Amino acid sequence: MKHWDQFLAPYKQAVSELKIKLKGMRGQFELDSSHSPIEFVTGRVKPIASILDKANQKGIPLESLEEEMQDIAGMRIMCQFVDDIHTVVNLLRNRNDLEIVEERDYISHKKTSGYRSYHVVIQYPVQTIHGEKKILAEIQIRTLAMNFWATIEHSLNYKYKGAFPSDIRMRLQRASEAAFRLDEEMSLIRGEIQEAQAFFTRKKELKQEE
Ligand code: 0O2
Coiled-coil region(s) at which residues (predicted)? Predict the structure, then answer.
């Protein structure tokens, strides 16, 4: 157990630091009174049981976890609109505290399950008492609609262990298409939505100043 604690410590540190940094980006947009492409951020270290399961499924030897398992540290950035995802990816590309090593675009190329999301794999330097340690982390960037679908599908996947009954599989496909259309519809009235959100933010600020 001590071995796992030691192994996971830099991943835990990375997730804590990245949460602060990515949430900080949202705060900076708020200070600028401009639309934040980031709605909210979550992060987690993969549980040991899931690391072992995935290593087993993918034939990754435990000695190679650091190099071959890219999502032991996982971040999720949720956006309101599909265009925001590209803004966030560009913001990440311009940072000099992390290095992007791979991008996987499951938005232009959705998975057969119906899954859509943009994945960015980064190398992130963690400062430890033994010096710098670079670890891999995966940042998943998605809209609220994509996140809703993925969260539900993930729970059902857990229940059925991937072997969905055909009616559930069909409904998940239809739900994925509905989420896609929802994102499209919201993009079309993006201007209206942002105007209303700016109005309510300003109203809240004025109330706080009173
Ligand atoms: P968790 O932490 O429980 O979410 P693979 O596992 O082969 O599909 P790989 O190479 O690990 O893929 O990379 P990929 O596909 O970029 O990232 C895997 C992660 O993306 C998964 O992590 C999920 O978080 C998410 N994901 C990928 N495909 C799907 C999908 O069809 N449905 C849902 N709900 N999520 C998906 P894990 O390992 O499943 O773990």
Answer: none
Q: Can you tell me which residue has the tokens 């891999």?
A: 136
Q: Is CATH 3.30.460.10 the right assignment for the domain spanning 2-209? A: yes
CB neighbour list of residue 128: distance below 8 Å, 6 or more residues apart: 9, 10, 13
The pTM for the full model equals 0.92
121-171 tens-digit pLDDT: 999 999 999 999 999 999 999 999 999 999 999 999 988 887 889 999 999
The set of residues, in sequence order, having a beta carbon less than 8 Å from that of 145 and lying 6+ positions away, is 179, 180, 182, 183, 186
Residue pair 124/137 in contact (Cβ under 8 Å)? The answer is yes
In the set 63, 99, 103, 138, the catalytic residue is: 138
User: Which residues line ligand 1 at a C-beta cut-off of 6 Å?
Assistant: 46, 50, 54, 71, 74, 104, 111, 113, 115, 119, 150, 153-154
